[in-house]
Design brief:
Elements lengths: L3 H4 L2 E3 L1 E2 L16 E5 L16 E10 L5 E9 L5 E5 L12 H10 L17 H6 L3 E6 L15 H15 L4 E10 L1 H10 L6 E7 L5 H6 L8 H7 L3 E2 L4 E3 L1 H7 L6 H4 L12 E6 L6 H10 L5 E6 L3 H6 L1 H15 L12 E5 L7 E6 L7 E9 L4 E3 L9 E3 L7 E7 L4 E5 L2 E8 L6 E9 L5 E2 L1 E2 L6 H7 L7 E2 L3 E5 L31 E6 L3 E5 L4 E7 L22 E4 L7 E7 L2
Parallel strand pairs: 2-10, 6-7, 6-8, 8-9, 9-12, 12-13, 13-14
Antiparallel strand pairs: 1-11, 3-4, 4-5, 5-7, 14-15, 16-17, 16-31, 18-30, 19-29, 20-28, 21-27, 21-30, 21-31, 22-23, 22-26, 22-29, 24-25
Helix pairs in contact: 4-5
Length: 585
């Protein structure tokens, strides 16, 4: 059996500054137990506690290989045994008051006092959950802060460590033996790896927007290496000792293909997840949307629910109505309260109109709903339209990244109200005139009746600074339509996993282009739910440049490597089309 630790690349962890500020007010190592009284505030800017809370700080937990990690536990003052919600990430168990995370909430328009500051960044707030009869466990995972061991990012090691902590929590004298998980982003996708290990006392999970394939969703989306956000994740790998951290950006250079064991280990074993699941997703999260919907399709849970919202993950997660909805799920599975959760629609989706009239919580029988039909809109190179039938003769469209806009677009105007909900894809026949490879960036835009591009903020802050940040990026904060990307030399499809609706690239080979060669390329688009009214238009943009820009305002956008003329063939034997999911009736 391959020893992954021998294949992974490790470097020293970054230095952990234990000053009670950089990593949160309560970050200094101080094992002990105290009661935080009702009305307690960790800082004046945060919410006061509604009840007394027992706070056990820096509790040691020994993992199966002898490594000791530390966790903070918040639990209600009661003689009754209570269930536990665990938040798993490398972000620091006291980071709810870390300045860098306070600034993020302020940037997007959330107030600090919606939470107590006791929560892990992107995790459940003890102030709410302890008042509802739950304990919250915030571990510092292996190699983080004062925890021993070397940091691994995504995969089996995190899964096994999470398993061990769950079983330890279930065995505590105050625990009722049932443990759940919750959180967004990293705290979401870590749940896939842990749940796949099937810890016996894991009773339910609640992933809110998280990738499920480390290669396809973050490191090499579309086969294109993009190191910036991976580097930002790794900046959280800080420790007080001389520990090591997995350097995933270095692994990207050493192992560029997805069939390497290091990358295979970062694919969540979705078919091993059988625990009840309440999954939350959105259409516009460039980091997480594809991975979240892949997880929805792949998990083996018989009891699973999906809610697709029209916001960004943080405002949605901390919204009080959504938190109450989550509580119903947990009450049902962790407390055995017969509150009718099992009658909740299995799918609740959103339909966006990008003009202030979004529909949310629309009940569906599946995603996509059974009342969806896939239709092809063919690219017409002569009229630059999306039409119902291909042209008999190829009409190529040529553009160059070095000159002009470096892109080509195609438009369809709708004569009647049309709702698209499901998985779009783009199938192109392309040619590179003076290069052996090309990178394609595709986005579907909605235009109003006057031809103006529509977009919408998914965060509460609509101010000038947010406009500046999102005009050419900030994709998780301003939605402009489904997008996708592909390096054409990585176009090979996995025949076993691909379907006509959802292409899956193998990313296990490099197939360079030759001069004058036209090749087919399927581009994975993010799922969508969008309505078009009469007179409005759909614009498909195919570009040699990264049209979507940076993922978040503090991230660097990927710079495309294209050179020379690029050709899209649009007819005859080289049919190119956009396939869209059309709601019937």
């Amino acid at each position: 059996m391959t020893d992954l630790n021998q294949l992974k690349t490790y470097k020293p962890t970054l230095h952990y500054v234990d000053d009670g500020r950089e990593h949160g007010i309560l970050s200094p190592f101080k094992p002990g137990k105290q009661t935080l009284p009702k009305g307690y505030q960790v800082s004046p800017k945060f919410k006061a506690l509604d009840c007394d809370i027992i706070f056990e700080k820096d509790v040691p937990v020994k993992l199966r290989d002898g490594v000791t990690i530390y966790t903070d536990i918040f639990r209600p003052v009661t003689d009754e045994k209570v269930p536990v919600i665990m938040a798993w990430s490398p972000y620091g168990k006291s980071a709810g008051t870390a300045p860098r995370y306070e600034n993020i909430f302020g940037l997007i328009g959330l107030k600090d006092n919606i939470v107590s500051g006791l929560e892990k960044f992107e995790g459940p707030d003890p102030a709410y959950w302890c008042a509802q009869g739950y304990a919250i466990a915030n571990p510092d995972e292996r190699g983080i802060a004062h925890s021993e061991g070397d940091v691994s990012m995504m995969g089996t090691q995190e899964g096994r460590d999470g398993y061990d902590v769950i079983e330890w929590l279930a065995d505590q004298s105050w625990s009722n033996g049932k443990v759940a998980m919750s959180g967004t982003s990293y705290l979401s996708f870590s749940q896939w790896y842990i749940a796949a290990e099937q810890p016996p006392h894991l009773a339910a999970i609640n992933p809110n927007e998280g990738l499920s394939d480390g290669y396809r969703d973050i490191a090499f989306r579309g086969g294109i290496p993009d190191e910036d956000f991976v580097n930002r994740l790794q900046s959280n790998h800080v420790n007080v000792a001389d520990n090591k951290r997995e350097d995933v950006t270095e692994e990207m250079k050493q192992y560029p293909l997805a069939n390497h064991p290091v990358w295979r280990d970062k694919i969540a074993k979705l078919d091993q997840i059988k625990v009840p699941t309440y999954l939350v997703a959105s259409y516009g999260n460039t980091l997480h949307t594809n991975g979240t919907f892949r997880a929805w399709r792949g998990i083996a849970s018989e009891n699973k629910w999906l809610r697709i919202h029209d916001s960004q993950e943080w405002p949605d997660y901390y919204d009080m109505m959504n938190t109450a909805d989550r509580k119903r799920f947990y009450d049902f599975y962790l407390k055995g309260i017969q509150n009718g959760w099992d009658q909740t629609p299995k799918v609740r989706y959103s339909v966006l109109d990008m003009e202030g009239g979004n529909q949310t919580d629309v009940a569906g029988d599946a995603f996509p709903p059974s009342y969806v039909e896939y239709q092809k809109l063919y690219l017409n190179g002569g009229s630059r339209e999306l039409v119902s039938a291909p042209t008999q003769k190829d009409i190529p469209v040529t553009y160059a990244p070095e000159m002009g806009p470096g892109k080509a677009s195609f438009i369809k105007r709708f004569d009647q109200k049309t709702t698209l909900i499901g998985y779009p894809k783009v199938h192109l026949n392309v040619e590179a005139k003076a290069a052996d490879d090309m990178e394609l960036f595709v986005v579907m835009q909605k235009l109003d009746v006057n031809g103006n591009q529509l977009s919408e903020f998914v965060v509460p802050n609509h101010g000038a600074l947010m406009h500046d940040f999102t005009d050419n990026g900030g994709t998780v904060m301003k939605y402009k339509g489904p997008d996708g990307r592909l390096r054409v030399s990585a176009r090979h499809l996995d025949e076993e996993q691909s379907t006509d609706v959802i292409p899956v690239h193998s990313f296990d080979r490099v197939e360079k282009l030759t001069a004058g060669e036209s090749v087919p390329a399927d581009i994975v688009m993010m799922p969508m739910g969008m309505v078009f009214y009469p007179g409005e238009q759909l614009r498909l943009v195919i570009s040699s440049k990264n049209e979507s820009g940076a993922i978040v305002p503090w991230s660097l956008p990927y710079q495309a490597q294209n050179k020379g003329q690029q050709v899209i063939h649009t007819g005859g034997e080289y049919v190119s089309y956009l396939q869209v999911p059309v709601k019937l009736g």
